[in-house]
Design goal:
784 residues; 5-stranded mixed sheet; extended; Ubiquitin-like (UB roll); 16% helix; 16-stranded antiparallel sheet; alpha+beta
Length: 784
């Protein structure tokens, strides 16, 4: 036996040596290529060979075999692919081991689904007859179902599957998916223990769940999600640190489950509020240390919040970055003294190196011309690499409205002290077409349409985009009002930072007493003086025509019967005027602002040296202030004051140019244009004589206060109070005479640039006994 064992051992060694010798040869030949199916799923050998490049008679190439395996896997027809080499006397046999995927023969069979429609769960599963399946695919798709259940407050949901062969049809299979849904479980109560500085309501915001007063909170499910709770814990800690509580500790939430859902409790150890002791900067060599420290926003005695420390760190980087020293680092080291409630902060600075801009490159702009982007860039080639200006340029480009995102990168060059500055932009659609309809007590049934292009190019035929110009066509047609408008803006007139505006408009309004047709055209130049300030000078010519005068009786003013008034016969006037305006705007959003200030002062000088039929001036001021409060609430103040007065040979302001108030856009709770001076018939028995008619005035002032609450995306509820009046004479402003209204309303913000306003108002105080009330207001658009 021992001899036989030794002989077998020698033979095995010889065979192993022979195999190794063959494989060690430089280029062993492939004598045979085989395709072997695994797993009982038939495989089409001809299909496999289409993706295989190794052929009989070729030299064996391991890299090519690896590429063949990858090619077969990339077809997604096979669950697994491997290769095997067998040594032959005169070469090797190459075998591809292929495990084919099954093909789904019919729709999946679902078991255990009771809380949702079976069709809904099938949509989550995303498997249809004809799909290629294997354990990996089924596992991934079943996990999608699990995640869908968890999003809908079923945290214990589990999904299992099994495959069953189709008799007589190898390669086909059907699957049975069993869902163990578990019980629906929401977070029904969240408690915070140990918090004294930050109240519960503010801490609950970290869960991003709807507040208690949101009557639509059923739309936003407060599901149980351990990942969400951990994110909330970290956010709570961050809230405290941003108020100076640097030692705060927030324990992992305690979770208790009952039949109704989960109760979650966060245990918070607030610690003390720290203030800055010494603020030191070390490692400064390139600049005077006192100059760097003088640029820091924090000082000893300030609250040592995380935000304040980040601002100091950013200020150090900006000091260097604005001087071209990029990649400067500033790492804070904290030395707290809990007994005194102070923390010393030492910033260790790692200074960057002076860098200049070699080239400025732009990428990603397939429509917008390079010129349109380059003229907004605040740095130039050859200048130092000013990181502050570059970061500000990103914001400027984003505010153009042409791009989804803008970011910059500095590419290294062969010269160590130069970088190529690259702006990467992601373009978005800049053209809009909107159409809609509405109803209001003033205009009755009306429709509107708007076609606009925010990145227009007058010379870019046939695409007409990419030049940075703005063009807009608008139309609003109702039973009592027809308005049409066209506007064009060239923001860089003559290649200077000077905006040229051209506008044409036409309106035809049917008032109770007469019809008024206006047609006008204007041209303006606007210059930006700073980031928030602009000045405008313009010229406008306008014609107005009054027709269908319903009443030509003699009237007298209600508050001064000695003064007569007549609704004159049909007439047509033309006016020509110079327009001056200054504006200041820091609002975060011009459509639905939540913070910031908007202010404008204007003067329109009609006639005089400019000719036409009317000589008067129109001046005033518009103000709005938006104050963000808690829970996404916003308090808004809007005020307006305006005065008209004649000069030269003109004695009276025409009726069509006077100031009116009352209605949704001025003082709510009162009839449209009904607040202010009125006339009554001198002879109440005269034909067509009305009880009274509003005739407007020459001075106007009002204040509108509005408190808005965001319920969810696209819907806000508001409460408001409006007060103001129109006075007969210029600069009158008798504040003892006023109209005031209050109410509630809805703001539907689903249509971009066309928020829908619905208000219910009550008249609190009338300016006189004749003023009519109007409870409901409906209109589309935005206020100044």
């Amino acid at each position: 036996m021992m001899n036989e064992y030794r002989i077998l051992k020698v033979v095995a060694v010889l065979l192993a040596w022979s195999a190794c010798s063959v494989l060690a040869a430089d280029e062993p030949l492939v004598k045979e290529v085989r395709i072997r199916a695994m797993g009982g799923v038939p495989v089409d050998e001809s299909l496999v060979k289409v993706y295989v490049r190794m052929r009989e008679g070729q030299a064996y190439d391991r890299e090519q075999v690896a590429r063949d395996v990858r090619s077969l896997l990339d077809t997604r027809r096979f669950a697994d692919v491997d290769s095997e080499v067998t040594v032959l006397p005169d070469g090797v046999r190459l075998s591809y081991l292929v495990r084919g995927r099954l093909r789904l023969a019919q729709e999946p069979v679902l078991l255990g689904v009771t809380q949702f429609y079976t069709s809904t769960v099938k949509k989550w599963l995303k498997l249809v007859p004809g799909d290629m399946i294997d354990d990996r695919v089924l596992g991934a798709q079943c996990q999608e179902v699990v995640m869908a259940y968890r999003k809908r407050c079923f945290p214990d949901a589990q999904v299992h599957w099994r495959t069953e062969p189709v008799e007589g049809q190898p390669g086909l299979a059907k699957i049975v998916v069993t869902v163990a849904e578990g019980q629906r479980a929401k977070i029904r109560k969240v408690e915070f223990v140990g918090n004294h500085v930050i109240r519960d309501g503010d801490l609950k915001e970290t869960l991003h769940s709807p507040p208690w007063w949101n009557i639509f909170k059923w739309r936003e499910r407060n599901r149980f999600d351990e990942g969400q709770l951990e994110a909330a814990r970290l956010e709570i800690r961050d809230k405290y640190m941003r108020q100076g509580y640097l030692d705060v500790a927030v324990d992992a939430p305690a979770i208790v489950r009952d039949r109704e859902g989960y109760r979650v409790a966060f245990d918070i150890h607030e610690g003390i509020c720290y203030r800055f002791g010494r603020i030191e900067v070390q490692g400064v060599k390139l600049f005077p240390s006192a100059a760097v420290c003088g640029s820091l926003p924090g000082k000893s005695g300030d609250v040592a919040s995380k935000t304040a420390m980040e601002n100091i760190e950013q200020a150090i980087r900006d000091y260097y970055g604005s001087r071209g020293y990029i990649e400067t680092m500033a790492r804070p080291a904290l030395t707290p003294d809990p007994a005194r409630g102070i923390v010393d902060v030492r910033y260790q600075v790692q200074e960057g190196h002076l860098t200049h801009i070699r080239n400025i490159l732009i990428t990603g702009n397939s429509k917008t011309r390079d010129k349109v982007i380059r003229r907004e860039i605040l740095v130039s080639p050859g200048e130092i690499y000013n990181e502050v200006k570059i970061r500000r340029t990103e914001k400027v480009l984003e505010n153009l409205g042409y791009f989804e995102t803008v970011r910059s990168e500095g590419l290294r060059t062969s010269s160590g002290d130069e970088r190529d500055l690259v702006f990467l932009v992601d373009e978005k659609a800049t053209g809009q077409f909107m159409i809609g309809a509405g109803f209001s007590s003033i205009d009755k049934l009306s429709g509107f349409a708007e076609l606009s292009q925010g990145n227009f190019d007058l010379n870019g035929w046939p695409h007409l985009t990419g030049g940075g110009q703005k063009v807009k066509l608008t139309a609003q047609v109702g039973e009592r009002r027809k308005e049409y408008g066209f506007s064009f803006v060239e923001p860089w007139f003559l290649d200077k930072r000077l905006a040229l505006g051209v506008n044409l408009d036409r309106s035809d309004v049917k008032y109770t007493d007469y019809d008024l047709l206006r047609q006008g055209a204007g041209v303006s130049l606007t210059k930006g003086f700073s980031r928030f300030q602009r000045g405008t000078i313009g010229y406008r010519i306008e014609s107005s025509e009054i027709t269908d005068v319903a009443d030509t009786n003699r009237y007298v003013y209600f508050d001064d019967p000695s003064r007569d008034f007549y609704f004159t016969d049909n007439r047509k006037n033309t006016k020509s005027g110079l327009q001056l305006a200054w504006s200041y705007d820091t609002r975060d959003n011009v459509i639905i602002p939540t913070r910031g200030t908007s202010a404008s002062v204007f003067l329109n000088l009609w006639g005089g040296a400019l000719g036409a039929d009317e000589d008067y001036y129109d001046t005033g001021v518009n103000l709005s202030e938006h104050v963000p409060l808690w829970w996404s609430h916003v308090l808004t103040f809007r005020a307006k004051a305006e005065v008209l007065d004649t000069y030269g040979s003109m004695d009276e302001i025409p009726l069509e140019d006077r100031l009116f108030a009352g209605g949704g856009r001025t003082i709510r709770g009162f009839g449209y244009r009904d607040v202010g001076p009125k006339v009554v018939p001198a002879d109440p028995t005269a034909p067509n004589a009305a009880r009274y008619r509003p005739v407007g005035g020459q001075s106007l002032a009002y204040l509108k206060t509005e408190y808005s609450i965001r319920m969810f995306q696209g819907l806000r509820v508001v409460t408001f109070y409006d007060i103001g009046n129109v006075w007969q004479d210029p600069y009158q402003f008798d504040l003892s005479e006023y109209a005031a209204g209050a109410g509630v309303g809805l703001r539907i913000d689903l249509i971009p640039y066309f928020p829908i306003v619905i208000d219910r108002a009550w008249a609190v105080h009338k300016d006189d006994d004749l003023t009519s009330k109007d409870a409901w207001t409906f209109w589309i658009g935005r206020e100044f």
